[in-house]
Structures are given as structure tokens and as C-alpha cells.
Amino acid sequence: MEVCCRKKLKDELKTLLDESNLLYEECLAANREQEEILRNAHMRLESLFQIMSTSLDGGNLNERAESLLVSICMGSILECVMQLFLLAYSDEYKDSSWQKWTDFKEEETAHLIDDALKQAVEKKAMTSRQRKSALEEVKKFFRKKRGEPAIESVTLSDLTSFYLSKNVIDDEERECFKKLVDKIRNGRNCVHVFSENTTNSTEDVLQLLTDFEPILFDLRKRAQYKNGTATPCGDVVRDMLKDYPDNTCLVIVAETDDSTIAS
């Protein structure tokens, strides 16, 4: 990778790191109850930025290797940033009942499934051992549906689904957000031996970092409202959006909507 390109990448990484640190501070101020988890996530973020910066300093990797390393780290950084923001809004996240089954008779359903499995055994469609294994998997699945997944364990793919399904992303910017996630995901998936994805070029990686910046900025700004700086809602949210940059990919969170996390 040429020296000028490496410098541009390092400058952009420095900007993203600074913005990530500010986001962490705002999220921490918004939800002190999650302090330990937030601090651990922040340490992870700093480590990922350090890995990328060190690799670019050394100049010992070829362009493809550097691109792959940045893409892998950026995937983890995006995942961590999205988790940080949800931790600031952990109460709203729990109230969303995401992936949680409500109005569900777990015990009754488990018995019905077990009866069906027993019939399958009687008809020699499966063995008793297979029935037992299947029933354990069913019960394990039901246990997962008793509550929402822990924020710190939600993966990038599921986080993306949550942000889109719960309208954390503005309708006008959904495509912008999805393209960014796809670029990061495709870039880091090149690590798999049989992957058909192609490594991002240096220009693609630089553009990826540039596109990520307004998302970080917007999340930080919205975390400020959560920690008490201001509490926008209703028409106030729409009025405030007029002052935001056109390329901001996310909308301000309003706490008054009882059906979604964002207005």
C-alpha cells in the first residue's frame, strides 16, 4: 500500500477512534448500571483500533492483507458500536421484546411436540435416542425465547436486523446503512478459504471508514439526549433533524414511542 494511502487510512482511523471514545463517554453517562460491560467494550474497541494502526505503521503486510485486516476489525468495531448504543438504551431494548415470544404456552407446546415425537418413534420414523435429542433442542430453543438476547452477545447480523426491524434506521437512510454493513461483512468474510467475496481495494476501505464516521457521530449525539442533555420527542425530533448533515444515516431516538426504540 502506498505511503499516502496508508496515511489517509491512519488519519481516518484516528478520527473514528476519537468519535468512538466520545460515544463511549456518552453511553456511560446515559446508563451507569451497565458500567462494567461498557468499559469492557471500550477496551475492546481501543484494542481493535490499535491493531489496525500498528499494522499500517509497520508496512509489512501487502495491500490485500492490510485491506482484509481492516475489514475484519471494522466488522467487530461496527458490532461493538451498535452494542454500546443499545446498552445506553437498555431499558428500551428490553421493552422491545425483540426475539422474545409472548402469549406462548411453553409447557403445553413442549408436551404436544413430545407426543408427536413419541408417535414417530412408535412408527419407527425415528429412534428413541433421536427423540430425546430433538426434545432437548426444542426445550433449549424455548428457553432462548423467554427473554431478549443479552446485548453484549448479539452478533452483527442480528444487530443489523434489530436496527432495521425496530426502525432505529430512518427510512430514507436504510439503504445507506445496509450497504455499509454489506461492505464490511463481505470484506471480512474473505478470510474464509472458500469465500467467493473479493477483498476490498484500498479506495473501498477508505470509503468504508469515511461512511462509518457519520453513523458514529449520530449515535453519539443521540446518546447525549439519553444522558439528560436533552430529551427530544415528537415534532421536536423532526425539527432537530433539519440541522443534521444530509449524510447522517440514523435518526434521533425518541423515548415516547412505546412500540419501537426510535421514532
Instruction: Note the gap between the termini.
Output: 43 Å
Q: Strand pairing plus helix content: what structural class? A: mainly alpha
Label the overall shape: globular
The largest sheet is:
none
Q: Return the string of H and E elements.
A: HHHHHHHHHH
- What fraction of the residues are assigned to beta strands by DSSP? under 5%
Name the poorly predicted regions. 230-263
> Roughly how much helix do the residues carry, as a percent range?
55-70%
Number of helices: 10
Strand and helix layout:
Layout: H1 3-30, H2 35-58, H3 63-88, H4 90-95, H5 106-122, H6 128-144, H7 156-165, H8 174-188, H9 202-226, H10 235-241
Structural write-up:
By secondary structure, this protein is mainly α. Helices cover 67% and strands 0% of the residues. The chain has 10 helices and no strands. The longest helix has 28 residues, at 3-30. It is globular, with a radius of gyration of 22 Å. The relative contact order is 0.14.
What is this entry, summarized?
By secondary structure, this protein is mainly α. Helix content is 67%, strand content 0%.
Based on the model shown, name its key terms.
263 residues; mainly alpha; 10 helices; 67% helix; 0% strand; disordered C terminus
